[in-house]
Design a protein that fits this description.
Blueprint: H1 4-16, E1 21-25, E2 28-32, E3 39-44, E4 49-51, H2 54-59, H3 64-83, E5 87-89, E6 105-113, E7 116-123, E8 129-131, H4 143-154, H5 159-168, H6 175-193, E9 203-213, E10 216-225, E11 231-237, H7 246-256, E12 262-264, H8 269-278, E13 288-290, H9 302-318, H10 327-339, H11 350-353, E14 356-358, H12 363-376
Parallel strand pairs: 5-14, 9-12, 12-13
Antiparallel strand pairs: 1-2, 2-3, 3-4, 6-7, 7-8, 9-10, 10-11
Helix pairs in contact: 1-3, 4-5, 5-6, 6-10, 6-12
């Protein structure tokens, strides 16, 4: 009988060899049989693994295939922690004088007005005082009110409900003003965040959902990373099965800086056509296209359906979008990736899972400050 130590040793040899383990999804793996009898499927349970090999089925022991997958996952996590260079987006701090650019500055009280409180500074060299409101210059209302409005809206409130909630905080604006804030700052954030490369995995998913735009039926195509749930790209289209979705795949490659090793979609022909033109190469390693997803089983599309549900919840409240390039769609994507923590990621945002950390109590404000600061450099 094979001892536990011997199974672990053989499992480690399998894990360290090339091409012996194939990842199907986060819960399903395949390990090549060492006797040449094909592949053994492994399925992750809550606290254990199920393997189809005789050693596991008839002896009920932890077989070398389970050891191989567990060791492979640990090696993968170790390499990821060493290789993944984290991008940290920090709140912008004032470091020099606006007039003489001296760094000999200090805090000099708070400026109080009806728009809110803003920190004042005193320059020790030229003696002049100044205040800085990075990202919110010339705005009639304070940054806390503006970012609170965006948080309320993308959490599911309507424009008018957001307006009424702001009144409780002493911020009196119309619902149109709230929309203008969203339009202005989502555009600013999009331009800044698109310059940051997320460290996504090698398995991507794509799907489409219907949306109403000015009362007309349209389709929103979305592409998401399977492991981190990072929403990589989106495309609004007129048709479901005949639309050219090559721009969706091309934008994804440009943002991620690579092609995936695995591309999971439904059986729509336009996905496969785009895959052949954008992802397929004559040289290896080639991208594998999985087209037969199911509602349940080893290859389902539950992750994409969950993300589509976020967009659907937003669309129901506003009844329909007003135009194809609506800032609301991009705003939902920014909220999904950088603001909203996900239970499936243990309270992290998809951006954090991709090595992008947004610091500060108010993540909206941190991103807006950096985006505004970046455009002025």
């Amino acid at each position: 009988m094979m001892g536990e130590d011997l199974r672990e040793t053989r499992g480690r040899a399998i894990a360290e060899a090339e091409g012996q383990i194939k990842r199907i999804d986060a819960y399903t793996y395949q390990v090549r049989s060492q006797s040449g009898n094909g592949w053994y499927p492994l399925i992750a349970m809550k606290s254990s693994w199920l393997c189809s090999c005789p050693d596991f089925i008839f002896r009920g022991v932890k077989c070398k295939h389970i050891w191989a997958v567990e060791i492979s996952l640990k090696l993968r996590e170790r390499v990821a922690s060493q290789v993944k260079s984290q991008v940290v987006i920090q709140p912008v701090n004032v470091s020099d004088c606006l007039f003489c650019h001296s760094q000999n500055i200090k805090r000099f009280g708070i400026r109080h007005n009806r728009s809110g409180d803003i920190q004042r500074f005193l320059c020790g060299d030229c003696g002049r005082t100044f205040s800085v409101n990075i990202g919110f210059e010339k705005m009639k209302h304070n940054p806390q009110g503006i970012t609170t409005a965006m948080q309320l809206y993308f959490s599911g409130e309507s424009l008018r409900h957001t307006q009424r909630s702001l009144e409780l905080l002493g911020v009196k604006v119309s619902h149109k003003t709230v929309y203008l804030w969203i339009k202005k700052y989502i555009g600013l954030m999009e331009q800044y965040l698109d310059q940051i490369t997320p460290q996504v995995s090698d398995t991507w998913r794509a799907d489409e959902m219907y949306v109403k735009i000015r009362g007309n039926m349209k389709y929103l195509y979305a592409l998401m990373d399977d492991e981190t749930r990072f929403w990589i790209a989106q495309q609004v289209a007129n048709t479901k099965y005949t639309e050219d979705v090559r721009p969706l795949l091309a934008e994804s490659m440009e943002l991620a800086g690579k092609r995936p090793k695995r591309f999971i979609t439904d059986g729509a022909a336009n996905f496969h056509d785009a895959y052949l033109k954008e992802f397929w190469t004559n040289r290896g390693p080639r991208t594998e296209h999985v087209q037969h997803i199911r509602l349940q089983g080893a290859i389902d599309n539950n992750k994409m359906e969950r993300m589509n549900g976020e967009t659907r919840d937003r669309e129901k409240v506003m009844r329909s979008l007003k135009r194809d390039n609506s800032p609301i769609i991009k705003g939902v994507q920014v909220f999904h990736n950088y603001i909203r923590p996900h239970m499936a990621l243990k309270g992290k945002t998809p951006a954090e899972a991709c090595g992008i950390k947004v610091e500060g109590e108010n993540k909206w404000m941190t991103i807006i400050q950096n985006a505004s600061h970046e455009t002025k450099i």
